């Protein structure tokens, strides 16, 4: 791959440990799909899987994108069930996948299960060594429920830290303690920081997280020089910007990470390090998506091997970059591998990326963004933000994919 520093190292390490290929089947107690013997291959089974981004592809803010539900009908069998393996891969993270699957079911008019939804933090399950540790979680929404759903058993929130150490959060004068407050609750040493998504009151989170990094997890015990490497950080969602109802993009979690990295470097003179960087465009996330696709195919009894993944998204720097990067990995993977051989990127124009006038016929000319909005640890490679296909919307995307695959709904039923 060669374009990515931190996450490539992490990804390679995971592959080396055979966690990636084995984890899911170990945890579910099922055999991998290629282990099924004595089954004949049915031509009616789809030989491809679909990865849909959500915001900017299927919804924009709280509003469905016109035509998305109609487009999905092409994927249903006679019983109204999805007839191809589908996962929804989003960098959103401040909610539970159960909530997101309910919203999607309503928007698309088809039953979507929580197991088909990959939020930015879903692939944290690939790092089981942290599940028993005492971790600080940063973000907003039902943080403790999200952490519990992921398998973390010993979680401390920023708010709990504020209460335990009332003298640390001093930027907002109205929230300072009135008199000389002492430590009110005793917390164990924090062993890792899990950044689930963008928090509110950034100054509080930045201050308290830095306190942990500079003190080996005991924020009242700063040492000079500060310990390095610092305690592990696992970060989900690197998007600098995202598209909501406003006409211009909004701050994403990547902006928060940029602030944290900049402050850490300014204060210590050293680089902040990540144990894991997940969410698109990280290959860890795409590998997790591949596992869920293969599991769906196996559970539905589709015997054709899934050879091609199609990733449909609106953000060149997250969806397209990630899909193309994973495609490089798949191409370098042994051709005898039973899994997919390619991952094609499909860029829609209903979100972050929007076309001016006609859709360009040459994808090489389709990306006009020249400022690199990707994460520090993902080096800019112009070829990775060039989509395999550029289409107007998700309807056109599905039309193109189904035509390429020669797949019709009637084949399934
Ligand atoms: Mg999007």
UniProtKB/TrEMBL annotation:
Q: Which CDD domains match?
A: HAD_like (cd07511)
Q: Which InterPro entries match?
A: CDP-alcohol_PTase-I, HAD-like_sf, HAD-SF_hydro_IIA, HAD-SF_hydro_IIA_CECR5, HAD_sf
Entry annotated with the keyword Cell cycle: no
- In the UniProt record, does the keyword Protein biosynthesis occur? no
Q: Which GO terms describe its biological process?
A: glycerophospholipid biosynthetic process
What's any one GO cellular component for it?
mitochondrion
Q: Which UniProt keywords apply?
A: Signal
The organism's superkingdom is given as Eukaryota
Under the heading PANTHER family, the entry gives: CDP-DIACYLGLYCEROL--GLYCEROL-3-PHOSPHATE 3-PHOSPHATIDYLTRANSFERASE-RELATED, HALOACID DEHALOGENASE-LIKE HYDROLASE DOMAIN-CONTAINING 5
Family the UniProt entry places it in: Belongs to the HAD-like hydrolase superfamily.
What is the name of this protein? Haloacid dehalogenase-like hydrolase domain-containing 5
Q: Which organism's genome codes for this protein?
A: Engystomops pustulosus
